[in-house]
Specification:
This protein has helices at about 1-10, 50-65, 65-70; strands spanning about 15-30, 30-45, 75-80. With about 80 residues, the protein is an alpha+beta fold. It has one domain (about 1-80): 2-Layer Sandwich (GMP Synthetase, Chain A, domain 3). The chain has a three-stranded mixed β-sheet with strand order 1-2-3. β1 (about 15-30) and β2 form a beta hairpin. α1 crosses α2. It is elongated. It starts with a helix and ends with a strand.
């Protein structure tokens, strides 16, 4: 949702955005803890190039409320445009 909003503010209207989070959970302190989240995002956005899209996606990763809430874990991003 945050990426769609950011793209819209930058003048791009996405046709679709598919995203998934691959979360790593490991044993910790007698239970389990989330250690990292790898975000994979593919989007179809008319009129945008790959470099601009990547910059928008990375800025969104850094500013997203969910990413901020999970600030104690490593969050990585793989974002690209659909063909």
């Amino acid at each position: 949702m945050a990426l769609s909003l950011a793209l819209g503010k930058a003048g791009f209207v996405p046709e679709r955005i598919d995203a998934e989070a691959r979360v790593t959970i490991e044993p910790a302190d007698g239970g389990f803890a989330i250690r990292s989240s790898h975000l994979v995002c593919e989007a179809r956005v008319p009129g945008i190039d790959e470099v601009t899209f990547a910059k928008q996606a990375e800025a969104t990763r850094l500013g997203c409320p969910v990413s901020k809430a999970l600030g104690s874990i490593e969050i990585t991003l793989e974002a690209h445009l659909a063909e």
